[in-house]
Design brief:
15 helices, six-stranded antiparallel beta sheet, 19% strand, globular, binds adenosine-5'-triphosphate, six-stranded mixed beta sheet
């Protein structure tokens, strides 16, 4: 996490206590630890352990002041949950929900029930991705403003002291909103020209009070996604609308037939990550289909060139390269759309260990290495003349299907013709910084990326590790002739063939050779890795 966010969290926790004693040190929440890497109690981070996503204090039996203001700098927060037990209705908590909570644009759930929270209800309309707001049994006051969230699934502010929108005091307003039906009422507005939705909600109330929650909203995507994506979508006539549709190109995939840019805007969106190349969102279309949208950052490539590259990529298909299903391109915005892959990435498998029946034993690691090298060799061969390499090869771009077959995603995100751009994308690790060469060739860079992936598979360690010089570490271990020490313990325990592991290690070291000239090409690498795999297969057959 950033230092600022960490300090905010510490300040937030400092106002809470456990039954009049101080906070348990074993929970973390201290200056010398990191909320994600040191797994602070109650904190959940993203899969790369970089930023805080959720805070759940429900099980910690805390008392004190819930200073929600303190955590408003933790912009990545998607959930804040803190619930006093029903038996603690003497309201040991106090606090308030500040208006600045609306700066938490990624917030999806805010659940603070049974505390002694007072003050006005914050302006929830600004957090358009909110799906749950539970704040029952408080002393919340003020007016419930007109708002409408297409995403909202739960809203409970029972037993508070609100006044109605028209100003009449309403005591103990108790209602549970059930979103029963969403009707789409498309309505073009000449000023902002965004699609509008009208939601029908059913309110079950214990007092005969009607509150109007309907208001027009531009879309139901998270506000960051929505606001960023809607900028280039300002159009003011039917002609321009048609032009916008032309900018959205749906490729040959039957899964998204007829997909329109408006469908992307309208769909609920969840931020999956912010990488070097931009932000990635998971969106769900009305028909239930889940897609991911990569909103590309700072790619100074002409629209024409972008379109050409995308169409070229579409023509070169390999079963282990995730196909692009659509793309969008305007002067301001470039988007790439893929199907959502629910079976995780190589990064998460290496980081979190075996999950959902997936296990990285020696056989599967060798299979993954062989498949990636083969698919890259194929793509490089087919796209050599067009100068299109993957450009961003890393373990989070290797996604699995149910059978644990790897697929490369985001092929072609880096233009080879833009030398100014390429180095910044590639300088994300210290090991590369030390070996950088200004004459970047993205095909060779793919080779470097593959080398690092092979090292990660062999060592079980991840390249991205706070200033850790991964490549340098491997080199030093090998130089000192401690080769066996470099391998993942699990592989040694499994009695994987040391000879074949050393052979693969040698290939990896060749791939990351600082001298670009001396690196092999992908076809050569693929042949050698397949040979190691063939040897392994034969040894298994002969053992049987
Ligand atoms: N099609 C997909 N389906 C499901 N998850 C995906 C898909 N593509 C990427 N992801 C996952 O989403 C997360 C965020 O992806 P993102 O591309 O932003 O990460 P990154 O590769 O580190 O960034 P960048 O490519 O910009 O350097 C990663 O964990 C990645 O594995």
């Amino acid at each position: 996490e950033t230092e600022e966010a960490k300090q905010s969290l510490i300040s937030f926790m400092s106002k809470l206590t456990v039954s009049n004693s101080s906070i348990d040190h074993s929970w973390g929440w201290s200056n010398d630890t990191d909320p994600c890497k040191n797994e602070w109690k109650g904190v959940t981070c993203d899969s790369k352990s970089v930023y805080v996503k959720k805070i759940d204090l429900e099980s910690l039996s805390l008392t004190g002041t819930l200073d929600a203001n303190a955590i408003c700098t933790v912009e990545t927060l998607t959930r804040l949950k803190s619930q006093a037990q029903q038996c603690q209705c003497d309201k040991k908590f106090s606090g308030y929900v500040p208006n600045s909570v609306s700066t938490l644009i990624n917030l999806k759930r805010l659940e603070v029930t049974n505390y002694n929270i007072s003050g006005d209800l914050p302006d929830l309309a600004k957090i358009s991705g909110l799906i749950s707001f539970l704040a029952e049994n408080h002393g919340l006051t003020g007016k419930i403003l007109r708002f409408n969230f297409t995403n909202l699934q739960q809203f409970n502010v029972s037993s508070n002291n609100f006044s109605s929108p028209s100003g009449y005091a309403v005591l103990s307003l108790h209602f549970l909103l059930l979103i029963v039906f969403t009707s789409m009422k498309k309505n073009k507005n000449d000023d902002d020209n965004v699609k509008k939705e009208e939601k029908i909600v059913e309110a079950k109330k214990d007092k005969d009070v009607s509150v109007d929650f309907s208001a027009d909203i531009p879309s139901n995507a998270s506000s960051e996604y929505k606001s960023s994506m809607s900028k280039p979508m300002r159009y003011s006539s039917t002609d321009q609308s048609a032009l916008v549709s032309m900018l959205m190109v749906v490729l040959t995939s039957p899964v998204v037939k007829g997909l329109r840019f408006e469908d992307l805007l309208k769909a609920p969106a969840e931020l999956l990550g912010r990488g070097n190349h931009g932000s990635l969102y998971n969106i769900t279309l009305e028909n239930g289909k889940a897609l991911v949208v990569k909103r590309i950052k700072d790619w100074s490539i002409s629209s024409e060139e972008f379109k050409k590259r995308m169409q070229k990529i579409d023509q070169v298909r390999h079963p282990n390269v995730l196909p692009l299903v659509a793309f969008y391109c305007s002067e301001q915005e470039k988007l790439m759309v893929y199907e959502y892959q629910q079976d995780g990435s190589l990064f998460s498998l290496l980081l979190q260990g075996p999950q959902n029946g997936k296990n990285l034993n020696w056989g599967s690691r060798l299979q993954i290495a062989t498949t990636i090298a083969e698919s890259l060799a194929f793509m490089h061969k087919e796209l050599q003349d067009n100068g299109i390499a993957h450009g961003n090869l890393n373990t989070s771009n290797i996604l699995f299907n149910k059978k644990m077959e790897p697929r490369l995603s985001e092929y072609c995100l880096v233009p080879t013709d833009n030398q100014d751009h390429a180095p910044t994308l590639l300088l994300s690790s210290n090991d590369y910084k030390t070996n950088r060469d200004h004459n970047i060739d993205t095909f060779k860079e793919d080779m470097y990326g593959l080398g690092i992936i092979l090292l990660e598979l062999l060592t079980g360690k991840l390249r991205y590790n706070n200033g850790f010089n991964f490549g340098g570490w491997v080199h030093s271990v090998v130089r000192e002739e401690w080769t066996a020490e470099v391998f993942d313990r699990a592989l040694i325990e499994e009695r994987a063939s040391e000879g074949r592991m050393v052979n693969l290690l040698q290939i990896a070291l060749k791939c990351i050779n600082p001298s670009l000239e001396n690196r092999l090409n992908m076809d050569e690498v693929s042949v050698v890795i397949s040979a190691i795999k063939g040897e392994e297969d034969r040894s298994i057959v002969s053992e049987v």
